[in-house]
Amino acid sequence: MNDFVAPPIDWAAVSPVLIVLAAGVLGVLLEAFVPARGRRATQLALTLVALAGSLVAVGLLWDRVQEHAVSVVGGSYLLTPFGLAVQAVVGVCALLGVLVVAERTTTGQDAFAPAAAAVPGTAYEDETRRAGLQQTEIYPLILFATGGMLLFPATDDLIVMFVALEVLSLPLYVLCATARRRRLLSQEAAFKYFVLGAFASALFVFGIALVYGFAGTVRLQGVVAVLADPSVSPLGSMPALVLVGLLLVLSGLLFKIGAAPFHAWTPDVYQGAPTPITGFMAACTKAAAIGALVRVLFTLANGLDPATRHDVEVALWAVAILTMLVGTVAGAVQTDVKRMLAYSSIAHAGFLVVGLVGMDEVGSQAVLFYLLAYGLATIGAFAVVTLVRERTLTGDEALGDGPVPDDGVVLGEATRLAQWAGLGRKAPWLTAAFSLFLLSMAGIPLTAGFVAKFGVFSAAVEAGAWPLALLGVLASAVAVFFYVRVIVLMVLTPPTDGGDATPAEAATSVPADAAGGTGTGSGGAPSGSGAATLTGAATRTLVSRTVVTVVGSRGPAAFAIAVCAVGVLLLGVLPAGALDLAGQAAQFRP
Amino acid sequence: MTMSTGFPWLTVLIVWPLVAAAATALTGVGRGRPAGGAVTGGRFGAGAARTVALVGALVEVALLVGAFAAFDTGDAGSHQLTETYSWIPALGASYAVGVDGVGLLLVALSVGLVPLVILAAWREQGGDHARLRRFLATVLLLEAFMVTVFVARDVFLFYVVFEAMLIPAYFLIGGFGQGPQRRYAAVKFLLFSLAGGLVMLVAVIALYLQVPAADRGPQTFLTDNLTGLTLDPTAEKLMFCAFFLAFAIKAPMFPVHSWLPDVTQNATPGTSTLLICVLDKVGTFGMLTLCLPLFPGASRWAAPFVVVLAVISILYGAVLAIGQRDVLRLIGYTSVSHFGFIILGIFTFTSLGTAGSGLMMLNHGISTGALFLVAGFAIARHPRRSQLVGDYGGLRAVAPLLGGTFLVAGLSAASLPGLATFVSEIMVFLGSYARWPAAVLVAVPAVVLAAVYVLLTYQRMFTGTTTPELAGARDLDGREKTVAGVLVAALLVLGLVPGPVLDYVRAPGEVAVEQVGETDPPPVFEPAASSAAPVGIDGRTTEGSLL
Fold this sequence. Notes:
Chain A has helices spanning 11-33, 36-67, 81-101, 123-131, 138-151, 158-176, 183-215, 220-228, 239-257, 265-272, 275-303, 306-331, 337-356, 361-387, 423-426, 428-442, 448-462, 466-492, 503-508, 556-573, 576-586; strands at 70-72, 77-79, 388-392, 410-413, 546-550.
């Protein structure tokens, strides 16, 4: 009676998650004990080592999991090949995301508020800024979030899944509120995310309760067993419970993915959050949530009777169609880079769901590749956004308003699309990389995005959902329009006002040392001399006192952009290896 | 999995332009960028890039000669110089290249036109050498894609290149065009092409899934493996429509042609040459080499509709060309008309008509290319760079060579006997008459319309009294003479001695008819033979044997 038998735990299988979470705990301690000047370096090193270690653990586990799924503590932690592959995608994206987070640029400032607790606009805030404080808690927070993401797709237990959901969500809410610039927007975004996220969590929990009522267990395998033999559970004869429960659980997960009609938070949060966090969140959360979605959906769908399964399929079709429509149509009219990328991420959620409607191995393989392709392009794109800044005009450059108090100070990011006009002349390499990411998101051949889209649409057609695939390609065509519009703006539109600049004028406005994003952190901020170009005269006055400049990277962000660009190209031209790995991982063994 | 026969000519032809493009893009980077407007290149400055590009394009021509030497004309109907390498086994896609006679001619057209376009662009882009360097590098990059698309023997590879080449083409129009609405034209081009291409993507996927699961392997997408599948008739028709839509937009065919005039008006003549003369051939080439063999049943089913649309294109393009005021727009509309002929010939399912279409793809490329480039020379002489026909007059008096080459190119477009296009057009007409006599009778007036738009334009621009603005215009210089001379010589040679070239298109024509499951109808129109008689007088003995 009093004997407590410790369950045998396969520590190796849990190691990818444990390494990251333990490093997060260690990070909190470091925060207290390491002196301020060494804190950032220590935290950053710890974070990178932990994420790399987690990836190594994933690599070591790969072959073992291929043979049979590893179940720890009766399925509380269940490592399937698919779950492991999602962990790999999350790990890679998190590693690249942290590099962008660590970027301080040539201005010497990172993207985070010196003291997030300071009320915006107060003297206290000014004080902290002047003191040069840094908020290094972001690194442990990122580790906790990543830990939750790693656990999310690797469990058979709905309660553990809920815990993972909260572990990944709560740090993200905080991280969203920590932007250095436009702090009110950032805090508003965090609040919206928190309130809506809490609501989604409630739906999720309620769904779990219904499923538990039906099956008397929260283990997915147990639910499937009850579906097969309803007599073992008192309420086993009420399959409507499990259907409603499943739909509620799916709602919670679709919220995290940003699929319509649960997408409303995405544009605001993506816009308000510090841009490096937006990239991290967009890539990693989506991967983890899709992993969990596949886990729940595919396991339960196999047990459902055809009629109920059909109901779930109808819901998925509706979500896919709605999400693609909202993402592309609303994306086409955005005027802010971050909002545009947010809507593009909604559209991608739609394409991902299209790949899942078949609920089979082909779909999970396609989705895995898609997540990687999307993650690389997204992190790269947001990393580029972090480097394009506004700068106040110095006295003689100011457009007639006299000297500005803080001459030549680099301000926040220039996220209005109009400001990106002519960026190609100021930073050709950065523009090339951003164009590549956009082309990949658009699904142009020879980039990763094409192979990914080909995969999800094939999966849909194979599952008989060719109308969805057709709708998907039409949505892609609309999406291409707004991606290409940005490329046109950057590459073809001259950076000076007043219509066509002659080539000679254009040539003179190229700064002699336009620092490319892939430059290895040399040189100061280039003197972007062209005034911010606006397509309409109406918005002209708004930015008349700032110009757009590209700040140099001190290394990490440039490295991350380069890795993402190379990855996007490699996955597009020679995807055979990655597809084989995804094919191995897609074998969905319980 | 790996298979190649002999020297990999086609891969070399694909890779070399990429090398040349990289070399061009890197020549003189970081030099020759003085603060003042005009850039003086210096020996290795940005100005040297055009020399690098030209040499690269000429080396490509030399490589092409090698490929021709390795090609066996006796077996022009089957794919030669083949190479097959595993590319994405998981998707069933391979890197598989090879050409039949028509494919080789189109590769020759692409490779042959590029140096001429480079020469013609020598002084374009307002003297900004850095900009010209980017333009030329993009042209060479596009050349690599153009060669690949004509030699692809794998549907996936074809599709990838078909879509990917839109991006350089887009930048050529939108980034380097001279018209005020070039960005609008570029976006229109891209959206039209992508809409068609993405619909085709669904059909490509569907086609792959038509292969029984057990037979799917790492090389499923090879055109040969997808030919001769037993398809569900409805699915086959849908897939045909998706493929055909993409190709019809590309070709361009009425009613999805409307992007074309905007593009020709706003792009540089060189870009238009590559786009209309080479890139758009991908559409007709795709109909011939993908639509017919992959969907024979649906092709027979759709032929009447396609023929009607083709005839409409022929007449509509010609009529609208007459009404144009912008000379580049005018040439664009003449192409709509000519593409109608090509499509008509393909869907006659007679070996004569199909072979005629194959030849016409080459001939139209040369004659329209000549028109675009020579018109570009004329525009370069106008002080305001006007493209309006009405702003010219009496140009022949000051620039007789310019007028002469324009007239020859125009008359070839109007199918004057003795010039290249005549041979192919008569083949298309005769081939079509055997199967669709009514269509031919309706389309024949287009020949008269063609004479009208060519001669009317010539008359307005080159005859009469010289307008004051053009009084000081010089005649063609050496560079321009080279460009125009090569094209006119090609038109004359192909018009007077078409026999050798016919060897390349005849066998593929027969193969296409066989693949679609038709046989040549008996020659119902006996006078056809006699109408070809004057052809024979010009030394074209091959004609007789074809009939």
